[in-house]
Here is the input.
Amino acid sequence: MFVDFDGTITKVDVGNSFFRRFGSEAESLKAVEKWKKGDLSGSGLLLQEAEYVDVSEKEAREFCRACEIDASFKKFYLSCIEHGIDVTILSDGLDFYITEILEANGLPGIPFYSNIAHFDTRKISIELPYQSECTKCGNCKGHQILMMTGPDDVVVYIGNGFSDRCAVQYADIVFAKDDLLRYCEENNITYFPFTSFDDILVKFSKTVASGNFRKRHRAELNRREAYSAE
Ligand SMILES: [Mg+2]
Here is the structure.
């Protein structure tokens, strides 16, 4: 199972809050608008926003650590572990705040893949270790899923935004809200709407209990095509 971080596990987009607080709010808003229109890639957005940052590592970590998560995420995560379901976080955000927030909520050790921030005095530089050739995102979640799953796996994806678009092409079971929900609607991708992890837990418990995991044909075909192209 793969879960987005910003706005999915957390209540707000932490990356966005961070750049608005410690970068240039005006530049950040402009850049986000461009990104939403498709005029700027996700990685371009991140690199642009990072240019204006003025913060020490300590301040940055303290600010982000205070960001709240969905109150039902921990219960959901523990239930997955109990049922032997692997949970991996895929984020197009930054490593330091994911680490801080997971720790602050008693959830250290959940594996995650994200972009990496390097602090240097009051500046940050961004490393994109998981970018794919298309460069639309810093961290290509679709590529990550292909790397971490096999043709026979049932892939579950939970997310809320634009950086999840590539991931849902390969997911059999999609839980979506906000921009991702609209994307699934427009592109005829079957999904379950959710507002909190409690909703997902209810749906998921029924599916696990009944053993009724069904693959989504289009997702399976997409994965098979991608595996054979590699
Ligand atoms: Mg998100």
Summary: DSSP finds eleven helices and seven strands in the chain. Residues 2-11+70-119+130-229 form a domain with the Rossmann fold fold (CATH 3.40.50.1000).
